[in-house]
Amino acid sequence: MTQRILDISDLNVRFATEDGEVAAVSDVSLHVNKGECLGIVGESGSGKSQTFMAVMGLLAANGKATGSARFGEIDLLKANEHTLNTVRGNRLAMVFQDPMTALTPHMRVGRQLTEVLERHRGMDTKAARAEAVAMMARVQITEPERRFAMYPHELSGGLRQRIVLAMALLCGPELVIADEPTTALDVTVQALILDLMRELKEKHGTGFVLITHDLGVVAGLADRVAVMYAGRVVENASVAEIFAAPRHPYTKGLLACTPRLTDAPTAVLPTIPGQPPNLQKLPSGCSFHPRCAAVFDRCRAERPALAEGGTLNACFLNHSVAAGGAA
Amino acid sequence: MWSYFARRLLIGIPTLLAVVLFCFFLMRLAPGGPFDGEAPVPPEVLANLRARYHLDDPLWQQFFSYLGNLLRGDFGPSFKYKDFTVTELIAQGLPVSIENGLSAIILAILIGLPLGITATLSQNSARDYAVSGLAMIGIVIPTFVTGQLLILAFGVWLKGTPFQLPAGGWNDGAFLNRILPVTVLALPFVAYIARISRASMIEALRTNFVRTARAKGLPYRTVVLRHALKSALTPVVTFLGPATAFLLTGSMVIETIFQIPGIGRYFVQGALNRDYTLVMGVTIVGAAFVIVANLIVDMLYAVLDPKVRYE
Questions:
Q1: Which chain B residues are within 8 Å of A94, Cβ to Cβ?
Q2: Among A172-176, B5-9, B177-181, whose mean pLDDT is lowest?
Q3: Which residues of A lie closer than 8 Å to B, measured between beta carbons?
Q4: How far is Cα B177 from Cα B19, in angstroms, rounded to an integer?
Q5: Is the ipTM above a cut-off of 0.95?
Q6: DSSP 3-state assignment of A116?
Q7: Which of B217, B304, B310 sits opposite A120 (nearest CB)?
């Protein structure tokens, strides 16, 4: 039996705004096993980032999470700030997506790395420095000694992204939540970083959650993929199944949108028609039905549950289970 | 960076010249003159006085002779305090105003900054509202009102109790005599600093880098003090520059209410008496303080933000 490091069940995230409540994440259940990489795919606003902000205890002040997120012996959603702080940056780390603003502008990047080691490993300045420089080298930062003393604005976006990654990996976490970790990197560095992540995964059993809309990265690193739409998981399957035989029309649409080198240069890039829904006014039934080519009457009336039907997916085409059990 | 500051200091010279120019001609445009007292002066005496102070020379000639004296560091004789030069009056009053102003600004920072920042630690709590509310009151009530109220409280109501404080007079700068005027001087600045630091701290706590710092598992205290505070200080420093210059050059209201021998009083009296040279002198000193204060603000920006240091 594989060991689950993170087990999210029935997670709901609501934001109180002036125009009413926004349902950012609804009834999400996901888990990550030791040494496994779970890919999370979806458009902007699909709730993929907020799911894991909730797990990290980093929701904005007007956000509220219910459900549970078990990490080892702790339920992250119920843990107090003190307990969270012994876990965050230590056993559970996050890589943020915007490298230009994710680092404190008035602190040298070296200090931003060493403070993690001082906090969680109790290292002195000298030991922390050696460790931080070594980690900088591991994430492909050339001349780490020199860059250790630099301020974020003196580094390129790609270098900053690698500093953020180094920061997450410093304490050898059991689980790394990476939100678009390679988007700011050029392809060659991206490949090296993915190699490093693969190595950590295989040799040290580090678990990864890879939040991205780059299906290529998912194909390269993920073992399982959860596709999110309008705050819900609509399909959850092994990476092989997702790419070879996607079952949910939204997953099919996403895959069809990926350009391929073998496409004719003049071919029109397919898109999914319509816009992602407004989270305050979700459509009735299946949230995807207004954009779905295979829609039929039941989709407008009832919401399909996430159930077995080739893969774990939420579509009446593959099974007839409605959410709430009334089939 | 140093060449930048040298350049800024040089730009201060034409700025000061412009102040001198405007101030000189504005004063002369005001109706009346320094010798229009309540008791009419005999015409022969007036003519002698005017001649003595070169007031009958063409205005441009007066201006250039004033400017020439100014460059030699001579602010000229006072028209009203006939036994003193303006330089002497400023030398007497300025240290008093600086001492009070400095005490007030330090007090305002020591109280206002912690007040504003701790308010953000519990946003929208009763404590936060209390700070915001008090700050608003501190800003809207003018000093001549708070001054009188404090005099009433500590000078009249509490008379005979250990809390009685001197309600005016200077007594050569005795500590007790300073308490009320410095408090009144500091109050609106406590309020401003609390409000500004609260607003900029809220802003700073919403940044992505504060989120990164929290994701590292740093205790909230460390997140606030090490990561958020420095970027929250920039707006406070921006406000402190001109505020300090304003406080150091004396408050005319407070120096009048509490009968403090600072230079703030001279400004009011000088203007009322058309004491041209005295008003000019105080204005020029004030302008110089503003220029230097803004320069110091720019240097502090460089301390707070390495990006500025770089440019």
A1: 215
A2: B5-9
A3: 56, 58, 61, 81, 84-90, 93-94, 96, 98, 101-107, 115-116, 119-120, 151, 153-154, 164, 167
A4: 35
A5: no
A6: helix
A7: B217
